[in-house]
From TrEMBL:
Keywords: Membrane, Transmembrane, Transmembrane helix
Keyword Membrane in annotation: yes
Protein name: DUF2069 domain-containing protein
Database matches in InterPro entries: DUF2069_membrane (IPR018643)
Membrane spanning stretches: 7-26, 38-56, 63-83, 89-109
Length: 116
């Protein structure tokens, strides 16, 4: 990434790519789905994370899209951590990455100075 990119956006980008990697590892290799085709689960979890690449020249906008999408992944991580003890560590990693992404977006917001 460009060194002129602010640190929060670099952290958010790293969390975004790590979230993509986690989905590929989780659903494609470590804990393959039992009742659904693997390609379907990967399509539902990975393709939405790839869509913001269309806005990538503007990293801030791409991360905003990913931040909105990450709310789904946060909910998925909480549900899996609660209901699937064997996959709890993967779910906690998903929760951690989504929180890192959302916090990075919040840290990167430019605040306006109060008038007067």
């Amino acid at each position: 990434m460009n060194p002129a990119v602010p640190l929060p956006y670099r952290i958010g980008g790293a969390a975004w790519f790590a979230l993509i990697g986690l989905q590929l590892l989780w659903h494609g290799w470590l804990a393959r789905p039992e009742h659904l085709p693997t390609w379907l689960v990967l399509g539902v979890t990975v393709i939405p994370l790839l869509l913001p690449f269309a806005a990538l020249p503007d990293l801030r906008r791409a991360l905003l899209w990913v931040g909105i999408l990450s709310l789904f992944f946060f909910c998925h991580g909480v549900a899996e951590a609660w209901s699937a003890p064997t996959e709890k560590w993967l779910a906690l990693a998903e929760i951690g990455l989504t929180l890192m992404l959302i916090l990075a977006l919040g840290a990167g917001v430019k605040r306006r100075k109060p008038a007067g």
